[in-house]
Amino acid sequence: MQMVLGLSWDVVSDEPSCKLPPNLYCSQERTVTKRILLSVINSVYDLIGFTAPALLLPKLLMQEAWRGKIGWDEVLPLELEHKNRLWEKPMHLISKCTIPRRFFAENYEDFALHIFTDASVYAYATCAFL
Fold first, then answer.
1. Which of 47, 85, 94, 103 could make a disulfide contact with 5, Cβ separation 3.0–4.6 Å?
2. How far is it, in rounded angstroms, from Cα 12 to Cα 121?
């Protein structure tokens, strides 16, 4: 394994994966403040955006905290804290996700590029497949 652009890269299988920082994992004893939420969001170092879909919810929670004029060290309201804990619980699974990069084919004439986009009031996304 090597580190490339903030991702763990298995050079044998040519598959990058994301290694999450230890401060991300849910702890019921830890109170969640706006400062801690921002720290968690910014501690995921991913230059190519592999984790962007997974980080959308905490970024939206951060926006709600700003709109609610919550102080940096104030505990988040129960609704926001509950949403954050629901988001944190399955996050350990992200380190099991890999991005297959190798493409081997004998017939190089039949490739198709598929591009999908979507948007909502909260976010937009684009994905391309070869």
1. 47
2. 41
Q: Answer yes or no: are the C-beta atoms of 103 and 26 closer than 8 Å.
A: no
CB-based contact 6:43 (threshold 8 Å)? no
Q: Which residue has the tokens 């700003």?
A: 66
Q: Which two tokens stand for residue 51?
A: 């984790």
CA distances from 99 to 37, 86, 92, 93 (A): 27, 25, 16, 14
Is the pTM higher than 0.90? The answer reads no
The pair of structure tokens assigned to 25 is: 């994992």
List the chain pLDDT tens, one digit each, 130 residues. 787 777 788 888 888 887 777 666 655 567 889 998 898 888 887 777 788 888 899 999 999 999 999 999 999 999 998 998 888 888 878 878 887 776 666 666 777 889 999 999 988 888 888 7
Which residue is associated with the tokens 């400062």?
35
Give me the amino acid identity at 69. K
